Every structure is written in structure tokens, then in C-alpha cells.
Amino acid sequence: MTFGLRNGANWLEALRAARAASQPAALITVSRADGSAPREAGARMAVGPDWQADTIGGGTLEFRAIEVARELIADSSGKRRTTLRMPLGASLGQCCGGVVFLAIERIDLDDDAWLAEAARAAVDGEIRVRHVPLSDSSANVTLTRAEGEAGETRLVKEGDAEWLVDVLLPSTMQVVLFGAGHVGRALADLLGTLPCRVSWIDARDDMFPDKVADNVVTEVGDDGDVARQPAGAYWLILTHNHALDFDIVEKVLKRGDAAYVGLIGSKSKRANFTRRLEARGVSRERVALDLTCPIGIEGIEGKEPPVIAVSVVAQLLQLHEARLRALRD
């Protein structure tokens, strides 16, 4: 790889980085999946001559798609898009049994505008819909705001014309993690492997490890950093100090724009915070609705930091997927 693409970058970040470096690239999208398939319609991956980002499911399906994408990148005839129909049977050495339809696009100068707008929408938590003219390589991709029910990525045919209607959901979670103790470290390690962005905050600079994942940013700070965090974030509050925990929880709940507010602790800690928050003007009903404490999915009782981290991240992923479904529908 010859340009500054961070490890774990998603398809959109990869394509924007490739365009910024004037590097050739292609986008592969699952436009339709019938029956059993490794990924759903709307799964995407970016491909360059010697790199790839994200996945459409691996195996021979993906190898063949990458091969075709690289042929399209190298094509000098002006062809910009192609489609593939891939039965997942013995011929591909895969036993899913379904059929996957792929749209493959060469990404060039004409795509810069929609790439930039898609990136802005992802940060703002908004849906965009790409309209890709598959049967006309001379026509450009357009990007629109979702109107009504955006639905799922799908193929649309009108006579001889074929379009990909590609629904872009804001799939990257923004996580704000307060606390760099044992559990905080375990969470940062696990979140560092996932499609999310993490602001990791602690007042003690020496608590952070020397190296963190590319999607994790460490910050020396305290509850004063609550106001500048983005709307729609997933908050995890597990500092070394209960008073600091309380101050952060109060500020986050009063903001009123969090996707999730998780506080490490017991039921008794929750009851104590609820009484104190009510005295500070945060209603008991608001606390019951918006504050998660204890954190993590039910049925996992282990207290080891990595076990807690797995349980909590599973809870975040459940909530985030439900949020995306609600946005789409």
C-alpha cells in the first residue's frame, strides 16, 4: 500500500484516502442476495491494486470479485461499472446455496463529491441513498437524502436501464470512554478492532498504554470534556472516582442526545446515583429510561475485565444495530 490508509479503515475511508492520494480504486457492493449468503445486500468493500478494506464475505466469492474489480481498475476503455451474478455452489467451492449479485464500480474524479457527502452524513448520523446507473457508464453517481422509508440496498430495472439504489447507513459508532483502568483498557482494546471511533478520556496521562488502535484517540481530561463530544455517541463511564462518575453522568443526561449512557457499577450504585440526580433536577423517569447500570448483556456474570468488555461491547452492538434498523425503516 502506497498511501496513508490507517489499519482497520472502512470502505468509505479507504476510497477517500485513495482519491486524496490519486490512487486507483474500486467499490464492490452486494446489490442483492437470494437465499443463504455470507453477507447481506448493502455489504461493501473497497479494493485497490494491492489493498482492500472491509469484506463482502470472504472465500472464492470475494476472491473473484476482487479479481474483477482490479481488471476494471486497469481497463483503459472507459468502462466504469460492471455487475456479477455469483451462485454460491460447487463451482465456487462454497456451500451457502444462495445467489449473490454484485455491483463493481471504478472510483475516479467524478466520485469525489458523493464520497465527501457520504462521509459528512456518516459523522452526522444521517442516511444517504446512492443512485448508481449500472447500464450507463457515462452517467455519474448521485447522492440524495433519504425520504420516508429508505429501505435496503436493491437493484431497480426500468426497461433496459438498471440502477443500484444503495442505502448508506451511518454504521460507525462514536464511543466516548471515560476511565483508563483495567476495564477501560480491555474495552479500548476490543473497541479498537471494531468499526467505531473511540474518544478515550482519563485525567491520569500515565494510565494510557504506549500504543492504541488507529480508531482510538486518547485524551487527558475529566468531566469538562463532556460538552464537546458529538451528539448520538455511546458513553461508557468507568473512572476511578465515584464523584467523577456522578458528575459525568449528570452532564451527559442533561445533554439529552446520547445513544447510550453506560455506568459501571452495581444496583446499589445506580439507586444512589438516581437519588442524587433527582436532587440535581434529572427526573427519576429520565434516569430509568436513559441510564444503563449495571452495564453489559444479561447472562454473563464474570467480573474479569476482558469478560466485562465482551459483555458491554455486545450490548453496544445490539443497540447500534437496532438503531440502524430504526433509521432505515
TrEMBL record:
XdhC- CoxI domain span: 19-77
InterPro entries in alphabetical order: MoCofactor_Util/Proc (IPR052698), Xanthine_DH_XdhC (IPR014308), XdhC_CoxI (IPR003777), XdhC_Rossmann_dom (IPR027051)
Superkingdom assignment: Bacteria
One Pfam family linked to the record: XdhC_C
Domain (XdhC Rossmann) ranges: 175-316
Record's protein name: Xanthine dehydrogenase accessory protein XdhC
Provenance organism: Crenobacter cavernae
Lineage: Bacteria, Pseudomonadati, Pseudomonadota, Betaproteobacteria, Neisseriales
